[in-house]
Amino acid sequence: MSDSSFFTILFLSSISFGLFMGAYYGTMEYRIRQKLPLVTADCFCPSCGHSLPLRHQIPVLSFLFLKGKCRFCHAHIPLRYPLTESGFLAFYGTAFLLFRRMPAAYLTLWYGFICILLTARCGRHGRHLLKGLLIMALYHGIMALLYLILYDAFSL
To answer: What CA–CA distances, in Å, run from 2 to 8, 73, 105?
Structure first.
């Protein structure tokens, strides 16, 4: 495989993971602050409590398609959610571009970034925050393992 194909696959993987981690970060931050379960089968509208179908949970795109409002109660979705998702996309992509030859470095930066943000935003919620950090460690650990396998497979 050519270097440009290798670069493209890893870069797209990086920004996709950043986008989805940004979405999950927003959900997790809300749930930590509200002392709600951190891992559940569904997401819901904080205004009306209606369970959101998967098509309404696509980072950034759902916000645009729904025109920033809940489909069920028409309450405004805070702009911070798509901005957070976009910020994660930008950070994960930038970390990849800067450290792509050192995958352990940017994988560590990714997890460090989310830990710092969660701690800064939810530091007063000790035990719930610790659970959130452990869940994020699990997600990032799985992604890092897959990423390193992909990296090794394409770098041969």
So the answer is: 10, 50, 23
pLDDT of residue 1: 58
pTM as predicted: 0.86
pLDDT at 156 over 70: no
Region at 35 (left for phi over 0; alpha for psi -120 to 50; beta for the rest): left
- Three-class SS state of 52: strand
| Terminal C-alpha separation, the chain | 9
Q: Are 74 and 64 in contact (CB under 8 A)?
A: no
Q: Which residues pair with 52 in a beta bridge?
A: 43
pLDDT (0 to 100) of residue 9: 84
Map tokens 């799985």 to a residue.
142
Q: Look up residue 36 and give its two tokens.
A: 């709600």
